[in-house]
Design brief:
237 residues; 11 strands; single chain; 6 helices; two-stranded antiparallel sheet; alpha+beta
């Protein structure tokens, strides 16, 4: 909403700027609370601020100390503009460089630079109880967004695919500029599927989806995933 409501795009926004803007710009709610679900980048920016408030640490430092270093995720960090000299940019579909913009300095909603190998370490750490305890993990993987019928749902920070044959997929897609990322966990088979590309290609999401059936009956003909992670379910013939 910042751009739509007149933010100066020559000024990099910070997480604190996002918080302040809620008081000064008064963006209108998309719908009445408790009636619908919509993924919100803004809420994840606010969540990062809450982490900083509670821990007394900058969000990047907190993640590094408590997760990245203990799990030996050595190629993972929270990007800031100070890293722009060494960080690899992403690319548009036709190959042009996707330049930095005014939202480059916000985090919580994005800007964790990582690799498939490090994300696999993260996935294995959940299974081994090294991230959160089993009760909280179960709560995160429980569906809550029952605002419409279908097989797709949302837990606590995780999208869920609850198929009619009893299969479950825990996943989340992501996109920032030309980078597309797909991450899916198949709990029945203890399989993790990870695809990351830094040249814009929305086919990454459906390629990850098609890979589910390599490991089990995940009804490949069913959901179609778009770049925002939304699914549309098509009944099989």
């Amino acid at each position: 909403y910042l751009e739509k409501m007149g933010w100066n795009k020559n000024q990099y926004a910070t997480n604190q700027d996002v918080l302040n803007s809620l008081y000064t710009m008064h963006p209108r709610p998309e719908f009445k609370a408790g009636t619908r679900f919509s993924y919100s980048n803004t809420n994840f920016v606010l969540l990062a601020l809450i982490v900083e408030k509670i821990t007394g640490m900058p969000y990047p430092g907190y993640l590094k100390k408590n997760f990245f270093e203990p799990l030996q995720m050595n190629d993972t960090y929270v990007f800031s503009l100070a890293d722009s000299v060494t960080a690899i940019k992403s690319y548009k579909a036709y190959g042009g460089v996707w330049d930095w913009d005014f939202l480059e300095n916000t985090y919580g909603d994005k800007n964790i630079y990582t690799t498939p190998r490090d994300l696999l370490k993260w996935s294995l750490a959940w299974s081994q109880g090294k991230v959160v305890d089993s009760a909280l993990l179960e709560a995160a993987f429980t569906p809550y967004s029952f605002e419409r019928p279908g097989v797709h749902n949302y837990g606590l920070g995780w999208r869920l695919l609850m198929l009619k044959n009893g299969k479950k997929v825990i996943y989340h897609n992501g996109r920032w500029h030309g980078t597309n990322a797909a991450f899916a966990k198949l709990p029945d088979e203890n399989i993790t599927i990870i695809i990351i590309g830094n040249r814009y290609n929305s086919n990454i999401y459906n390629t990850a989806r098609k890979a589910y059936d390599i490991f089990g009956d995940y009804q490949q003909r069913g959901p179609t995933i778009d770049e925002d992670g939304e699914l549309t379910y098509h009944e099989p013939p």
